[in-house]
C-alpha cells in the first residue's frame, strides 16, 4: 500500500512525501524537495527511511525534451546514478 502528499508553498518549491508498506517489510517513508532555480532548471533532494538512502539531482527542460540526473547513496548497493531523457508530446 502506498500514500503520498505534495505541497507547493510557492511556484518555485515543491515538497513531496510518501509512505509505502509491503507486507513483510517496515514502512518506508520518503521525503523530497524540488527547487526551480529558473523556469527550465530544477534542483532536487530526497531521503528514504527503509533503504537508508539519500539522493540529489537536477532536471533541465529544453522545449519538449526533459533531462534528469540523480545521484543516490544506499547502504546495500552503494553509489547509484540515474539518468532519464523524456519527450513531452504536446
Question: What letter string, H or E per element, gives the SSE order?
Answer: EEEEEEE
Order of neighbouring strands in the sheet with most strands: 1-2-3-4-5-6-7
Shape: globular
Distance between the termini: 33 Å
What is the strand content? Answer: over 45%
Mean pLDDT: 94
Number of helices: 0
Nearest-angstrom radius of gyration? Answer: 15 Å
Domain count: 1
Give the oligomeric state: single chain
Biggest beta-sheet profile: 7 strands, antiparallel
What structural class do you assign from the helix and strand content? Answer: mainly beta
How much helix, percentage-wise, in residues? under 10%
Strand element count: 7
Task: Return residue spans where pLDDT drops below 50 for at least 5 consecutive residues.
Answer: none
Write the layout of secondary structure elements.
Layout: E1 2-10, E2 13-20, E3 28-38, E4 41-48, E5 53-62, E6 65-74, E7 78-87
Antiparallel strand pairs: 1-2, 2-3, 3-4, 4-5, 5-6, 6-7
Protein name: Outer membrane protein beta-barrel domain-containing protein
Protein described:
The chain has 90 residues and is mostly beta strands. It has one domain. 0% of the residues lie in helices and 73% in strands. The protein has no helices and seven strands. It has strands spanning 2-10, 13-20, 28-38, 41-48, 53-62, 65-74, 78-87. It has a seven-stranded antiparallel β-sheet with strand order 1-2-3-4-5-6-7, with no helix packed on it. Strand 2 and strand 3 (28-38) form a beta hairpin. The chain is globular and about 45 Å long. It starts with a strand and ends with a strand. The mean pLDDT is 94. This is Outer membrane protein beta-barrel domain-containing protein. It comes from Adhaeribacter arboris.
Amino acid at each position: 500500500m502506498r500514500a503520498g502528499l505534495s505541497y507547493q508553498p510557492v511556484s518555485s518549491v515543491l515538497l513531496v512525501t510518501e509512505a509505502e508498506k509491503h507486507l513483510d517489510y517496515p514502512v518506508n517513508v520518503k521525503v523530497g524537495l524540488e527547487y526551480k532555480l529558473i523556469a527550465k532548471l530544477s534542483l532536487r533532494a530526497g531521503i528514504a527511511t527503509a533503504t537508508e538512502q539519500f539522493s540529489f539531482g537536477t532536471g533541465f527542460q529544453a522545449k519538449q525534451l526533459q533531462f534528469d540526473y540523480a545521484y543516490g547513496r544506499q547502504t546495500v548497493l552503494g553509489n547509484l546514478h540515474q539518468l532519464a531523457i523524456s519527450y513531452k508530446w504536446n
